[in-house]
């Protein structure tokens, strides 16, 4: 950030944010103070007036806003604290965009950092959590264009320094009473645990934790680079499966165990951004499951309704339930094709053959048995089918009359009922006559053209993997 | 470790080590119990007898030993606890070697692990400290051949499980009273801090810390691989400087900041294995110093009497004090050379020229001034010198009579006095006549052949870097 670019600074009227505001102003940085009235406490509007007055005195432009935090907590179904945080960041980044500011600054300081890292340590965290807050970070949630960083200019300044500055300048900042309430976890750390640790266990603990945050951040950057490279190596990009992730199994298994675990975690976050709470154990179990699979195809359900299918050469992570063999679903990428009869047609590893058979009724039971045993093969009543015969994928909202169901259903429901992973639905081939699907290969023929004792001429369709 | 290989197990008679002993025996592993009488408490010999008795009952071979831990603490100048630890590991690995055991097992359990990680966290630690103890580790200090790992088979078993096992088997283990003494930091964690954290801050904290140890270990392995690769890239192996480390500066500066810091830390440990206590700040300061150096040569003292010299293209880390320009010390690698006069001789980037001048006494002050201004040039009294003239390195124990000192001194002391880094002493060239050194280039001529008012013929020597 250049020294002539404007920074929007969140100001509550508390000591920390006043220190930040004056600190930036003293440094010659153009600042806009932004204060949001959360309307949670009766004194909040008085606090806004206090900040506005200070800004006038010091010649800093000030933007005030109001939010109905209580209502937001209801619509978002989150805690008041979380709703206040959301409202605040929305407000700050909104102000920054309107005023073409280069950054949003918050008044997080060294002791906030210590509390954050300690909180993560106590509540269970890997290296990420120990990095705490960064002096500069991009929050795509509030800044989708990733142009306005959140900066924390006083992250190395201690609460003691800020308090003594307040005394020196004879400022009486707003005191948020809830900061004293030791019902809140963070306040218990601030007022009870950290002083105890400092007095009885480690006088330098604040400094130690700050250093840990810094080294953990550097280590995390090293690890990110390694994971990025490993991802390049084992991830197979596949446009046909936008909701799923495909990994090269042999490349994956060549990675170090820690890298494998982190790759799995990346898959999880990529498919479910809200999965940040998924614990180490769950990732570890999936890791062990994949490692334990022999060459047989195996599927296991994971977190957040994801499934993981392990094939001989691939690992597929996809949303949806268990599926016997997701990667063997055929996929048609060439568009619609009119079939010649008799004839053959090949597409991406598959071969479709069509021919006509003369039937006598005593042959029908044998054909039915054959079809039951082999879902990649079907015999249909030629007389019921209206040409042309088309190989294609499903149309939006298309209906299908599956054999034995006695009715019609949407293909979109049929995919769900037959547990086709979402990733494979759009590209799944079907054979239709002039009017409707007559066969979904590997799954089900249509009812209307099934073999009957009257059938004298059958259409034989077979879809096989090419050798 | 195979199930038919012998494991030597340290047994104190306490619950943990008895649990370990029986656990291994139950699993069918051949075990030798090893108990060391530390002779620190009057009851210690009774405890040895207790363990021996139990081993007889359960049919486990037992080896007992004695150590004078108090005396060891005096000779090693360490605490009693540290001396006890040294004596114990020496004993265990000694027993393992004598009995050709495949491993030494200790009874560290899950709660020991939690205490270890928490202790490191409180006292200041990077990622390494958070990995805690490993289930299997090589300790070259006790096992120089790196053939006998230390294993910790019950690192996932909690103290509660061990205690309930003791109750079930109606065993009354030895209770070391010092385990209750909350004067000891670890005991305070065990009996006060961890229960407090569990009750008031994080009920699952033990599990969280165990998980952290595991993920930190995996992350550490990733980082080790990265650092190994970076080391290959920027380290310049140089046999001439066994006590120093030479880095390629441009390769070094291409590394990520976290990698650079860890490379510097590796240099530190490699040169001073006892430097494990050197903090993040010190490494960071050296990192920042190196980054801040422009193309001028700079030297700064570091921890443990190390110096770091930054040259245009190299970084040299070496033991010893500050030195203006260590990498510009000439180094002779070609062996002794007899010099022709007049003549020239070139070696590894340097060129030596010799010639003879006729002098009149009025010229002498000008030559003396010239010599004072340029240490790479010298004029000596030709009449005092006995041929042949030899370019060589110092012989063991060789003496030198430096100009102005009025006496003789060992060259080994001369190097120290003139602050030549140890790394450059063995290869430093000198010019000697038939009897002794007449000039140490860049440093000092000999006194016996200095110019005087009587000198009529001078030997002019000059050692210059080749362009």
Written overview of the protein:
Two copies of one chain form a homodimer. By secondary structure, chain A is α+β, with helices and mostly antiparallel strands. In chain A, helix 3 crosses helix 4 (80-98) and helix 11 (257-271) packs across helix 12 (280-292). Chain A is elongated, with a radius of gyration of 32 Å. The first copy, chain A, has helices at residues 15-26, 44-58, 69-76, 80-98, 110-123, 127-130, 159-168, 185-200, 205-234, 249-254, 257-271, 280-292, 364-373, 411-417, and strands at residues 7-10, 31-37, 62-66, 103-105, 136-137, 150-151, 245-248, 298-301, 306-310, 314-319, 337-338, 343-347, 350-358, 377-381, 390-393, 399-400, 409-410, 429-432, 437-440, 444-445, 457-465. In chain A, the strands form five sheets. A six-stranded mixed beta sheet of chain A has the order 3-2-1-4-6-5, with helices on both faces. The A-B interface holds A 121-127, 130, 185, 188-189, 193, 197, 200-202, 204-205, 207-208, 211-212, 214-219, 221-223, 225-226, 256-259, 261-262, 279-281 and B 121-127, 130, 185, 188-189, 193, 197, 200-202, 204-205, 207-208, 211-212, 214-219, 221-223, 225-226, 256-259, 261-262, 279-281.
